[in-house]
From TrEMBL:
The keyword Membrane is assigned to this record: yes
Transmembrane spans: 55-75, 82-99, 105-129, 141-160, 172-190, 219-238, 250-273, 285-306, 312-330, 342-366, 378-395
Membrane topology label: Multi-pass membrane protein
Principal subcellular localisation of the protein: membrane
Cell compartment(s), UniProt: Membrane
Protein name: MFS transporter
Domain named Major facilitator superfamily (MFS) profile: residues: 17-404
Pfam families: MFS_1
Keyword vocabulary terms for this entry: Membrane, Transmembrane, Transmembrane helix, Transport
InterPro entries cross-referenced by the UniProt entry: MFS, MFS_dom, MFS_trans_sf
Length: 413
């Protein structure tokens, strides 16, 4: 059982606690997207290359992903509340350190701290919903995760562009630290522990749970689709600022507006996914992948002809709508798959997704550097084709599972 000395959430505070949990969900997006307009400015201020600035994103993604693989077991064994509080405090302090250093290596170290602490915060709040809700109400809340998370990519670059223009890149991290401090104070007053019963921390048992999850083909394929979908967004995040500010010679404020516009695409995809939740799964996902491929090819063709910003915005928006649609459908499924181990399932899902994203985005931007709309379109095409192949595997697995179910039913009869 949970420690009786731990402050538990009060019944009257569940409403505001739920609001605070939702407020925590976009933190990973804020931590990556708010300083996207500042990437070119950081290269000048710190005297580093474009790839070194992009590495601050990759290091965050890697540490965020790897941490989630382990944090889930800790949250299931030691509770959500205290780990989340400590993580908020450390995140706040690391933001202050970044804003007051001129060493890229200190920035790298603090970005790794960001990944670890935000992993604890976000996974704890995902588990919050599974702890307190069940059935259709839980499904309802989980289906909002992608939509709520998308407020980060929508709002953060817009704010970051103005902060960069007015106060410099350091102000982005002061903003992040202040937001974390506010959440920390509100959590102290209104939230509390939610897990009803902890499980003993036995590494061998946790490894066995991980193994059971990983060997579930539909679950691992779902994680693969999530990674491919979010990689499409991250590819733009790592390439877009340099295309806009170097290739088109526009300001960081324009970069922020463009990211704001494309952030809405992810939210639109989430709403469409929620609206079509009852439609045949494989068919709607195959149609989605096909449309994404059409839009990516259209981006390549129009960029070749016009060499202007508008083709990037229009067709990247449509590709990102499809990515948000994919993410909404698969994320809800993966988090509901293992309710008795919500922390581990949430950590494994989110962690593996971010590891996939960090490797794919770093590898693709290395092979296809941030140069123009054509390179961006090629990056999208690679990811979309991979999604199509994964969807073919999903179809194969579904058929096998249905056949096994029919055989089992026949055996019973």
């Amino acid at each position: 059982m949970t420690n009786s000395t731990v402050k538990r959430i009060k019944e009257r505070n569940i409403g505001i606690g739920t609001f605070l949990a939702f407020a925590m969900i976009p933190m990973s997006g804020f931590a990556t997207d708010i300083y996207i307009p500042s990437l070119p400015g950081m290269t000048h201020s710190l005297g580093i290359s474009d790839s070194q600035a992009q590495l601050t994103l990759s290091l965050f993604l890697i540490s965020y992903g790897l941490s989630q693989l382990f944090i889930g077991g800790l949250l299931d064994s030691f509770g959500r509340y205290r780990i989340a509080l400590v993580s908020m405090f450390l995140f706040c302090m690391s933001c202050v350190v970044i804003a007051n250093t001129h060493s890229v290596y200190v920035v790298y170290a603090m970005r790794i701290v960001h990944g670890i602490t935000i992993a604890a915060m976000v996974v704890a709040k995902r588990a919050f919903f599974v702890d307190l809700f069940a059935g259709e109400k839980l499904k309802h809340y989980l289906s909002f995760f992608t939509i709520i998370w998308s407020t980060g990519p929508i709002v953060a670059p817009f704010i970051g562009g103005y902060l960069e223009e007015s106060f410099g890149w350091e102000s982005n991290f002061y903003f992040l630290g202040g937001f974390a401090a506010l959440l920390f104070i509100l959590e102290l007053f209104f939230s509390g522990e939610t897990i009803k019963q902890t499980v003993p921390f036995h590494p061998a048992r946790i490894v066995a749970v991980y193994y059971e999850m990983i060997r579930t083909s539909s679950f691992t394929l779902g994680i693969g689709m999530l990674g491919l979908a979010y990689s499409m967004v991250m590819i733009y995040n790592m390439s877009g600022p340099f295309i806009i500010e170097h290739h088109f010679n526009l300001s960081p404020v324009i970069t922020g507006y463009c990211s704001l516009f494309l952030g809405f695409a992810w939210m639109v995809g989430g709403f469409v996914g929620k609206g079509l939740i009852s439609k045949p799964f494989v068919r709607k996902m195959n149609i989605n992948v096909l449309l994404q491929l059409v839009f990516a090819v259209a981006l390549w063709g129009t960029s070749l002809i016009f060499n202007q910003l508008w083709p990037i915005l229009v067709f990247a928006f449509l590709v990102h709508v499809g990515a948000g649609f994919t993410y909404n459908n698969y994320f809800t499924y993966c988090l509901q798959r293992f309710p008795k181990n919500a922390g581990i399932a949430g950590g494994l899902t989110g962690g593996t997704v971010y590891i996939i994203v960090s490797m794919l985005s770093a590898g693709i931007t290395y092979v296809l550097p941030a140069k123009d709309g054509q390179n961006l379109s090629f990056s999208y095409i690679v990811l979309i084709v991979a999604s199509g192949l994964t969807m073919y595997r999903v179809l194969t697995v579904n058929r096998k599972e249905e056949a096994a179910l029919r055989q089992g039913t026949a055996g019973v009869v």
